[in-house]
Write a structure and sequence with these properties.
The complex is a heterodimer of chains A (285) and B (478). In chain A, 35% of the residues lie in helices and 22% in strands. Chain A has a six-stranded mixed β-sheet with strand order 5-6-7-3-8-9, sandwiched between helices. In chain A, strands 2-1-4 form a three-stranded antiparallel β-sheet, with helices on one face. The longest helix of chain A has 16 residues. Chain A has 285 residues and is α/β, with parallel strands linked by helices. In chain A, helix 2 crosses helix 3 and helix 3 crosses helix 4. Chain B is of the alpha+beta class. Chain B has two domains: 288 residues, no CATH class; 167 residues, Jelly Rolls, CATH 2.60.120. In chain B, strands 3-6-13-9-11-10 form a six-stranded antiparallel β-sheet. A four-stranded antiparallel β-sheet of chain B has the order 2-15-7-12, with no helix packed on it. Chain B is globular and about 95 Å long. The chains are: A alpha/beta (285), B alpha+beta (478).
Chain lengths: 285, 478
């Protein structure tokens, strides 16, 4: 079995005050293994320790005890960072640069050649839908646009592992959907995605496996299917069922020794409706 | 191997300096786009122009004024650039959380610090070059308009100074300190002679009629601050013509009467003048009297027995031909640039642990304290003296003797002494980089002075950056 891409062992972080006195245990003995090609969702309410864990995995915070390894190396290992992408909770960008200059700067940090940087920037800005605004200074961008520049800069080096901290925060439903599609695209390419969010729908849409954090402790972990499956229940979606036929179907089920718990009409999500309406409007225009 | 190939496919060519250059480029772009740099540069030049245009200033005073402004104004505005741009750059990266994105890339913390340092150093070099170039052109224009000359000379000092006692009755007090390689006071019987020996004067750098610059301290009775002094030229060569010296107002004679058929005795020339405290006298002497190897002796003695004559190493100097002003000005700017790099390195060091406003104050404090080190050094012996006195008085008081009125308490003096010593030991002496005085006095700035400044700047910059890196490596980003 190949080594896990991300692995933590009893990873603990206790924040201290100026005098070194222990104040707050943000992460408590976290054991985690994420395999190559997985999209792992890190769920939890605000202040549960998700971002602290991510920062320890990126070498921005040092663990109080325990260990963490990313791609088999300590998180502070510089060469490993060539294979990592990171989108922080908010896009913290240099406001005096435009989108092209921003991507060019981060490309330079990876030692990419000028023509490759230029080509990559064009591709990514097209991907995140900022092609038309690429020469505007970042300070003029909306929160969503800045977030998309952040996402593009996280992907500039075609990373093997991508850390996404609240990736859809501040995005409208269309871009949010695009981001989720992009995550699925990355998964198809065999990339590993470590994504934290408190938006349950985001996690549900894209993740293979989830971990739920609360007060610094990993309370539950497993595949999404395992965790949200209701044991002993079956759902059948049927078309063309009239009221009379429905009575017959219910009787047949009960004759087979099963119980009908509820009969309802399925509906699409609000997100699907929004995307359908906006999509139709765009086509009409 | 596979990863290396993948990296090559992405056009990745890793080198340790790549991220440093990327950061320095970003720093320059940031500073230029933030407009602080442009505003300060324009303001410096406007102020420079204004000094020359003021109608109230006499034409002949304009050149020194512009020169003073060019040297000191540029230094000051450069320090402002360091404090207001470099001092807040890393704290802003941290406070605005851009550091998260930066450090998640393959950028080591030392590369971030070095990149910022290199970027600001480039910016300061551009600032020095631009303002220096414009100032130099401007000074030429102003000097042409006011008729003042812009030239500077080198003062060559004796390779050896000694006191000769013709008889034993003279009282000679001679002392040497690191700052004053030679100092002596001749008083009493009029037999002490101070001899200045020049061994290798560069003849190519001296005019045909060489200026000799003299400045002596006189101790006289009844508060007279002047006295009559004799100066002798004692050339090494014997077969030289007395005429050039006579033409320049020297009395020429021989140490003994020349005899026919004998080699000529040593020739010498004498001049009597009134030396005044704080006044520099200048006489010309013929270059032909200097030996081809560059050797010549001068002797100084009192013509009045009642006065005391204090002679120092720098009291007698042979002055070179006028040199190019721009080269001297450039050396001054180079020294200023070194001063900036020291303040820059210390400010960046502070920025690894301090917030932006606190670091701004730290940068200003470094500049102010560094400029006052000379004053602190001078006042330290006085504190030590007071401490000894206070201890003696305390001991006397313990023995039941009279206690002095309101002495400064010994602990206060001790704390003052400890603080002074700590500041002197840690803060760089920025006066070492200040060469504005010789420039303004029309004297050449020795290349060695700039070299010494470079050594100090390199030591301080390296030390400060290493210490900053140690702090930065320990730092966490929440």
């Amino acid at each position: 079995m190949p080594d896990p891409v991300i692995e933590t062992e009893k990873l603990t972080k206790i924040f201290t005050d100026f005098w070194g006195r222990k104040k707050h245990k943000a992460v408590d003995s976290l054991n985690l293994k994420i395999e190559r090609g997985e999209v792992f969702g890190f769920l939890g309410p605000n202040g549960s320790g998700k971002t602290t864990t991510m920062k320890m995995l990126l070498g921005l915070l040092y663990p109080t005890s325990g260990s963490a390894r990313v791609l088999g190396q300590d998180p502070s290992h510089i060469a490993t960072k060539e294979r990592i992408g990171f989108l922080p909770e908010e896009s913290y960008l240099y406001r005096f640069l435009n989108a092209v200059e921003t991507l060019d700067f981060y490309g330079k940090l990876f030692g990419m050649a000028r023509d490759v940087r230029r080509k990559k920037a064009e591709e990514l800005l097209d991907l995140v839908g900022l092609k038309d605004a690429k020469l505007r200074p970042v300070k003029e961008y909306s929160k969503g646009m800045a977030r998309r520049v952040g996402l593009a800069s996280a992907l500039i080096n075609d990373p093997e592992v991508i850390f996404l901290d609240e990736p859809t925060s501040g995005l409208d439903p269309i871009v949010s959907r695009q981001v989720k599609d992009l995550i699925l695209e990355l998964k198809k390419k065999g990339k590993t995605v470590f994504m934290s969010s408190h938006l349950l729908a985001d996690i549900e849409d894209v993740c293979d496996r989830v971990g739920i954090m609360h007060l610094g402790v990993l309370r539950a972990t497993g595949t999404l299917r395992e965790m949200i499956l209701i044991p002993g229940k079956t759902q059948i979606t049927v078309s063309g069922l009239t009221d009379e036929k429905r009575v017959g179907v219910t009787q047949a089920i009960e004759a087979a020794g099963a119980t009908v718990d509820a009969v309802s009409e399925p509906h699409s999500s609000l997100e699907d409706l929004f995307l359908r309406v906006i999509g139709t409007r765009k086509e009409a225009n | 191997m596979l990863r290396r190939l993948e990296a090559l496919g992405l056009g990745i060519r890793r080198s340790a300096l790549g991220p440093v250059f990327a950061l320095s480029g970003l720093t320059v772009r940031e500073s230029v786009r933030k407009k602080v740099f442009i505003v300060l540069a324009v303001f410096t030049l406007v102020m420079l122009g204004a000094t020359a245009m003021l109608p109230a200033i006499r034409a002949e005073d304009r050149v020194p004024l512009v020169e003073t402004w060019a040297q000191r104004g540029i230094t000051f505005f450069g320090v402002l650039l360091v404090v207001f741009l470099a001092g807040v750059s890393i704290p802003e990266d941290i406070e605005e959380r851009k550091i998260f994105t930066l450090l998640s890339k393959p950028l080591a913390r030392w590369q971030l610090l070095a990149g910022r340092f290199a970027g600001f150093a480039c910016l300061l070099a551009a600032f020095a070059l631009a303002t220096g170039l414009i100032s130099a052109v401007f000074l030429r224009v102003v000097s042409r308009g006011s008729g003042a000359t812009l030239a500077n000379t080198t003062e060559y000092l004796a390779s050896e100074v000694r006191i000769e006692e013709e008889k034993s009755q003279a009282t000679i007090l001679a002392r040497r300190t690191p700052d004053k390689p030679f100092e002596a006071t001749i008083s009493g019987s009029p037999d002490g002679v101070a001899v200045y020996r020049f061994a290798r004067l560069p003849l190519h750098d001296l005019p045909e009629q060489v200026p000799l610059r003299l400045s002596f301290d006189i101790q006289a009775e009844a508060l007279l601050m002047f006295g009559i002094v004799e100066i002798f030229i004692r050339p090494a060569a014997r077969d030289i013509s007395p005429e050039p010296a006579r033409k320049l107002g020297w009395e020429v004679g021989w140490s003994e009467k020349p005899r026919e058929g004998q080699p000529p005795p040593p020739i010498m020339a004498k001049r009597t003048f009134t030396a005044k405290v704080g006044v520099t006298s200048e006489f010309l002497f013929p270059r032909s009297w200097i030996d081809r190897s560059g050797a010549i002796d001068f002797a100084v003695k009192r013509a009045q027995p009642g006065i005391g004559l204090t002679v120092r190493h720098g009291s007698l100097a042979v002055v070179s031909e006028p040199h190019n002003f721009e080269w001297n000005f450039a050396k001054g700017l180079a020294s200023t640039f070194l001063l900036w790099t020291v303040v820059l390195a210390l400010t960046l060091m502070g920025s690894t642990v301090l917030s932006a406003p606190v670091n701004l104050l730290f940068g200003i404090a470094v500049f102010v304290a560094g400029s006052m080190i000379g004053f602190l050094r001078e006042s330290l012996p006085a504190v030590e003296h007071q401490l000894v006195q206070a201890e003696q008085e305390e001991a006397a008081a313990d023995d039941g003797h009279h206690h002095a009125k309101d002495p400064i308490p010994t602990p206060v003096l001790r704390v003052s002494q400890a603080i002074s010593n700590a500041v002197i030991g840690v803060v760089p002496d920025l006066a070492e980089f200040d060469v504005s005085v010789p420039i303004l006095q029309g004297r050449d700035v020795p290349v060695e002075t700039v070299g010494r400044g470079l050594r100090t700047a390199l030591l301080y910059a390296a030390g400060a950056l290493l210490l900053g890196l140690a702090f930065f490596r320990m730092r966490e980003f929440r």
